[in-house]
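CHAIN AND CONFORMATION:

***
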Amino acid sequence: MTTARKLLTADDLLAMPDDGKKYELVRGELIEMPPPGYMHGVVIGRIGRRIGNFVEEHNLDFIETFEVGIYTEQAPDTVRAPDYSLTSLARIVAPIPQRGYVFGLIPDLVVEVLSPGYATAAAEARAQMWLSAGVRLALIAYIATQEIVAYSDGGTMRLFGINDTLTCESVLPGFACQVSEIFA
């Protein structure tokens, strides 16, 4: 006899007691996420600071967040948390609740930082998941190789190496920063 596992919902995830661990929900399945390493935090802080400064300096209508649950699918539910996200105010059609997830509130840009040993195929799948949800640009930063891969909703992929200048033209025209500054 086979017993079916109960799929969790976004509300179930939200109602979980705080046990000090980070979880994501993927098609109703609870996934425990290990805490990131120190360099992971350094890299996401540097990328987020540069993008955030650009947005502020140019008075752009975006909200930036770190590790916020993004509710991308229902029945079964998926709630994922990118390391960094940037969402245009135009995408926010209703007031944001003080607590909980907002189904369909999808960022324009997400950044994922990958520690050494994380499978490239898994990273590409995560980027494609974001694009399928409606993200316009997904940046995957690889600590081990000091590279950033940009996946756009137009189907293009671009590799930025340590000596390159990272741009995000589809979301942030004019933004540029040296990849070497992110991984220094």
